[in-house]
UniProtKB/TrEMBL annotation:
Top EC category: isomerase
Single biological process term from Gene Ontology: galactose catabolic process via UDP-galactose, Leloir pathway
Domain NAD-dependent epimerase/dehydratase: 3-252
Named cofactor requirement(s): NAD(+)
Name this polypeptide is given: UDP-glucose 4-epimerase
SUPFAM superfamilies in the cross-refs: NAD(P)-binding Rossmann-fold domains
Keywords for the protein's UniProt record, in alphabetical order: Carbohydrate metabolism, Galactose metabolism, Isomerase, NAD
Source species: Vagococcus elongatus
Amino acid sequence: MIIAVLGGAGYIGSHAVDQLIKKGYEVVVIDNLLTGHKEAVHEKARFYEGDIRDKVFMQSVFSKEKIEGVVHFSASSLVGESVEQPLKYFNNNVYGTQITLEVMKEFDVKYIVFSSTAATYGEPEDIPILETAKTLPKSPYGESKLMMEKMLYWCDVAYGIKSVALRYFNVAGAQLEAKIGEDHTPESHLVPIILQTALGQRKEITVFGDDYDTPDGTCIRDYVHVVDLCDAHILALEYLKAHNQSNVFNLGSSEGFSVKEMIDVARQVTEKEIPEKIGERRAGDPAVLVASSEKAQKVLGWQPQHTNVKTIMETAWKWHSTHPKGYDSK
Ligand code: UFG
């Protein structure tokens, strides 16, 4: 089966490509390399550099390749930036998905696995969060992903394009061999920032608020290993083929860790001091985000293997310590 991975040069996309290839899929990577890295593109994937918003480019790829399914990671994904530049998010994320769906319809591609987010829920009423919880995004980023989910829904109704939307919680860690890993510029995610501090690339880590209604006052998140997360994408493709039915799933580990706990785990793993200071709250941060991933486990048969945060941190550290400048390290 030939799968097009949109955003296959990015952090999560490159891990998904790696696992698809290990499972025997033929993979076509489409990426504009604005945030992705050419070095992250798997050597066995056929790579097309271009933008999913460019319909002529997308048509040329889909006419050359016999694509049977799409796994869609191509999106801008910074919550804070989206509040300042909402139109960037509606253009890149929503319009990019529109072109993707138009081309899928034209070339009769029936399956899409979509990278959605816990940011579609906003401030949750109940923890753990179920897929049936209200979706009231607090940022244009979350809103754009919810709009993309709705586009998928209506394209199923009208054209029979079947989708699985996977709502990610906090993705972290790296491929166990550490040949690929997380490399964003600028970096805003907690785990890489902690590890850059361990490497001495940052003086300290600023904890964004310690006055939340949580046991140690810092925000609690649900960290899921990138390899486990990508396994769920393969199961989602298999689900689509077997059931020809659209669905939505949360992907988390169902356990929450505070910012302070994560820094402590990193101290154990790296054996570095990792100085921290307490700063202001970051706008838009909910106090607690923890998923119920029961539905993915029951319906997709998802069995995450690397649920221990120490393992997540160890694999991330293996990547960061061997690639201190990310893909520019060589
Ligand atoms: N944090 C700090 N200091 C930092 C960076 C982060 O204290 O320097 C805190 C944040 O305030 C937050 C936690 O660490 O409480 C995790 O922050 P991240 O930026 O790593 O992740 P987010 O929870 O903000 O967002 C992530 C993804 C989003 C996704 C969201 C859904 O980046 O794309 O999870 O849960 F929408």
